[in-house]
Amino acid sequence: MGRGFEQRISTAFDLPLEDAGCEFCGHCADFCPVDAIGFRSGRYEVRPWKMSKGTTVCLQCPMGCGVTYEVHEGKVVTAHGYFPSPASGGALCKRGRFNYNFVNTPERLRGALVQSDAGQLDPVPVDEALDVAADRLRQVTEENGGAAVAVWGGDMLTNEEYYLLQKLARAGLQTQNVDSVAGPWQLPLYEGLASSVGLGAMTNPLSDIAQAKSLLVLGSNTLETHAIAAIRARKAVREGAVMIVAHPDRVGLTKNAQCHLAIQPESEGALVCGLLKVMVDEKLYDQGFVEAHTQDLEKLQRSLEKISLADVAEKTGLSEDALREAARLYASQKPACLIYGADKAREPANETFYRMCVALQALLGSVGVPGGGVMAMGTAGNGQGALQFGACPKYLPGFRSATQAASRKVASNLWGADVPGDPGLSWPSMFEAIEKGQIKALYLVGVDPYGLGLPERKVESALAKLQLLIVQDTAKNRAADFAHVVLPGAAYMEKEGTAVNCERRFQRLAPVMDPPGQAQTDFDLINGLLRRLNGSLALAGPAAAFAEAAQLVKDLGPVSYEAVDGLCWPIGDDGAGTERMELEGAEKPIKFYAARL
Ligand code: SF4
Ligand code: SF4
Fold first, then answer.
1. In what residue span(s) does the 4Fe-4S Mo/W bis-MGD-type domain sit (predicted)?
2. At what angle do helices 268-281 and 320-331 cross, to 10 degrees?
3. Interval between CA 153 and ligand 2 midpoint (Å)
4. Domain count, the chain
5. Residue closest by Cα to atom 8 of ligand 2
6. Could you read off the pLDDT of 10-57 as tens digits, one per residue?
7. Residues lining ligand 2, judged by CB closer than 6 Å?
8. pLDDT of residue 40
9. Which secondary-structure segment (H or E) carries 321?
10. What contacts 24+ positions apart, CB below 8 Å, involve 329-332?
11. Between 26 and 181, where is the model more confident?
């Protein structure tokens, strides 16, 4: 704006940033060649050449963006997008860009704490705290059996940490009570998609969204919680795609959409059901694709005959005409891409919902093709890895049934320890079991149970009833007030390992800094417990854990820890990943199921 000495950087028409459509992502500061737009943090405080740089993967949401941190004296100073990242191509959202104070905070745990006889948490060396934790876990299992213990992991662990955590639970403590925070959202996503397309996650890579000609965006406030998908959707719209955003509120993406469906909260399932009905009734679907690649269309048709559009309208809060128009608009251009982001603040969708999403996309001939797909995204950074590497009461690593004798035998042969047959509990059920006195010991790894929308009194009442609570985290969270042992953990940028993002892509994490004081990675702390409980179960490090897990996780194919970086599972015998679900080579790989309102 302005001329001569009056010249300055501003928005078009000098609008305030909010009105100019700025999302405050900071991406422009990565590009500005003269630092006219730059980062304030560290400016005039740290000389650039005094900072070290390291690149890793952001685990604050399931996009898994590549991020380069600049670090000075054990603190993150700035975060920059990593341009070669196949997941994000250099983009970061405002959370990944600016939310790193959880690693810098003076509240970081630098040492371990153990409750004294007087009920105080006293500082002790980490080894001593691990001794106490292991002794007391052993005591609880000897007195009450393994089912009296539960293990619960957070969102930002590596695959190897989830693997080790479930191994500790199943082989070390003889309990199937192991879950991750993301589990209740990730499990139906896996089961719905696996049963209808044989692939329990997103069918296409995130980059495909930009090639879509028609978009339906549902679920989370995508720009806030699944930003890379939203950025790609906006790119598709700029290139001529039509976009429908279905959300109770006018969210960030709404202003780029041709159609905003202001649906009732939690009525996405009803909306998809209604769109299916209109498409089948009006024969808007791709008959050639359906005949060539799908089975059981009649099942879907029969179920839709029993559903009235008036009922759909009532559930969604939309008129029947609006539903018809939306279905016609969505079917008007292909490939069509359905984006659904799960939201931790809301009830998990069930597997029928995910099957209906697949059905919608299959009717439009938009599964397994570039620019199409079911972009179903979980709630958490490495929720996909948690499920795949066994931090789930229902599945052992590699989605093997946790209760079937044959799959338990495979795992127990590998570990040299029995795997219990009793079904385990998901974390919401763990609270009930604690209240009933069935669970007496709980090991929290990177979990703040107060941050999950549960009534505070319920959390407090459960934590207070425990005979043993071990809290392992980067900072002393509120659960630590009830803890008997507190262990100092590390943040994801201080860890080595792998993670899987929502597009099924494995990525390697590399530590950009050391954990402070005596803090250790979750891997080392869990391994420390394993060593004390049964030394033969401990592993040499993340590479050894990955290699052992690969014997259970068939989707990893023959690739090594070093070679897996960037590959999307399933990985074939030739070591090649699967970026996009393949239609060829499989006999009618897409299955329709009955729709449900
Ligand atoms: S790149 Fe991000 S911060 Fe910069 S103007 Fe655009 S939206 Fe705003
Ligand atoms: S989109 Fe997700 S993974 Fe990417 S920077 Fe933001 S929070 Fe991190």
1. 51-107
2. 70
3. 20
4. 3
5. 96
6. 888 888 887 777 878 888 888 888 888 888 888 888 888 999 999 999
7. 58, 60-61, 63-65, 88, 92-93, 95-96, 227-228
8. 84
9. helix 320-331
10. 329/214, 329/242, 329/244, 329/258, 329/259, 330/214, 330/216, 330/242, 330/244, 330/275, 330/364, 331/214, 331/279, 331/284, 331/285, 331/364, 332/214, 332/242
11. 181
Q: Is residue 5 part of a domain?
A: no
Does 373 share its domain with 459? no
Q: What is the pLDDT of residue 24?
A: 83
CATH classification at residue 357: 3.40.228.10
23 lines ligand 1 (CB under 6 A): yes
How far away, in angstroms, is 565 Cα from ligand 1 center? 30
Q: Quote the tokens at residue 64.
A: 């898994």
| Residue having the nearest C-alpha atom to atom 2 of ligand 2 | 61
Nearest ligand (C-alpha, residue 15): 1
Q: Is the pLDDT of residue 479 over 90?
A: yes
Mutate to test the pocket of ligand 2, among 25, 65, 100, 344 (most ligand atoms within 8 A of CB): 65
Question: What is the structure's pLDDT at 9?
Answer: 77
- Domain, as residue range, for 501: 112-181+385-554
Residues in contact with 15: Cβ distance below 8 Å, sequence separation at least 6, in sequence order: none
- Cα(15) to ligand 1 centroid in Å equals 13
Q: Please report whether residue 41 resides in a domain.
A: yes
Say if residue 360 is in the same domain as residue 407: no
The response to whether residue 586 sits with its C-beta less than 6 Å from ligand 1 reads no
- Residue position matching structure tokens 């079904």: 423
State the pLDDT at residue 161. Answer: 98
Atom of ligand 1 nearest to the CA of 25: 2
Residue 67 CA, closest ligand 2 atom number: 5
Q: On the CB side of 362, how many CA atoms lie within 13 Å of its CA? A: 26
Ligand 2 centroid from CA 93, angstroms: 5
Whether 74 and 194 map to the same domain: the answer is no
Q: Is 284 left (phi over 0), alpha (psi -120 to 50) or beta?
A: alpha
* Nearest-CA residue for atom 4 of ligand 1: 28
337: Cβ contacts below 8 Å, ≥ 6 apart: 204, 208, 209, 212, 214, 215, 216, 233, 236, 366, 371, 372, 373, 375
Question: What pLDDT, on a 0 to 100 scale, did the predictor assign at position 163?
Answer: 98
355-373 residue pLDDT tens: 999 999 999 999 999 999 9
Strands (E), 302-372: 336-341
Q: Is the CB of 26 under 6 A from ligand 1?
A: yes
Question: Are 362 and 221 in the same domain?
Answer: yes
* Ligand 2 atom showing the smallest separation from residue 228 Cα: 1
Atom from ligand 2 closest to the CA of residue 60: 7
Supply φ then ψ for residue 179, to 5 degrees: -150, 170
Q: Is the peptide bond before 62 cis (omega within 30 degrees of 0)?
A: no
Instruction: State which ligand 2 atom lies nearest to the alpha carbon of 97.
Output: 5
Greatest distance between any 2 Cα atoms in the chain:
81
Residue nearest atom 8 in ligand 1 by C-alpha distance: 22
Taking the CA of 381 as reference, the closest ligand is: 2
Atom of ligand 1 nearest to the CA of 27: 1
Work out which ligand 1 atom sits closest to the CA atom of 11: 5
Band of pLDDT at residue 543, cut at 50, 70 and 90: very high
In this predicted complex, what is the ipTM? 0.91
d(CA 512, CA 492): 9
* pLDDT per position as a tens digit, 277-301: 999 999 999 999 999 999 999 999 9
**330 in a domain, yes or no?**
yes
